[in-house]
Amino acid sequence: MGDRVISSRPAKRITVRARRYRIIATVALFSLAAALQLGRVSSLADFPNNFAPLIAISCVVGVLIAVIVERRLTLLVASGMVSALSALCQTLPEFVRSPPIFTSRPATVRLVSLNMYKQNASPLAVAQWIISQRADIVILLEASGLSADARNLLSAYFPYGFDCSNNGRCSTILLSRSAPLSGGGLARADPEDRKGVSAVWGKFRDEHGPFTVVGVHMQRPPPMGDQATAINDIAAFLDTVPRRRAIVAGDFNLTPWTFAMRRQDHILNLPRLTRTNPTWPAPLPLLPIDQVYAGSGWQPVQLLRGPSLGSDHYAVITDLAAAEGPER
Which UniProt keywords apply (predicted)? Predict the structure, then answer.
């Protein structure tokens, strides 16, 4: 009997399929690299920049694997390198920008801000932890998750407060131990539908004069929400108060690697104290989307991340001292 001839068709099919996958992956990676930079002009294209560090790490690992497998520089490897470089261009500026200047002087204001999550299974534990922090002012987002017991407990320690709609129908609230000079909501449309800005403010006085605190729960990034309009509304309110002693904190649903965050920093015209410390999602945080801004009339003493409290966010604890020297 003669030798059997084994068909090479399956091997050819595998080769064709592998080549097709390489082409698709190459086009996708080049498209991703372009999209990250198109975020300069398109809020929709800016969305992937929220994950820029993860994209950079994934592309670098992918390039190393491809080099080992391919043993040569291919177009696929090159596309991975371009994508990694594009993502790094978004990530590095946040790591190299000048850090806030901390002071060793005693703090005069302690602020706790937390998106507590509407379906939080332990609202009483959240309230007990907040009280244990001995905060002066508390910003709570998605506070509709508070039980009656938790509300009563917080009210005993923080007898003053406002919500973002001025009628108790908004779950973005500001609580304080001392009586505010004034305060109110900055909601538009139905803030619980997340179709408009969900923000609240309070004006207080310390030994250095009045200061304003704004709590913000920003809509999700496009295409899910209109963040640009919302941040302009916050900036318009800040135009009515002395920015030097203003504090803005909350869940901005944005990371520092996006062009939108850079525009937001410029529009708010306040130093952003928070950097790259991730606050979402708990219990394995990857993205820093909870932010704190403070005017030049403040110096940070410390910024801390709270424990996991049954929310998908971690709390941010901010200790501030009045800045020394002449007004800046």
Answer: Membrane, Transmembrane, Transmembrane helix
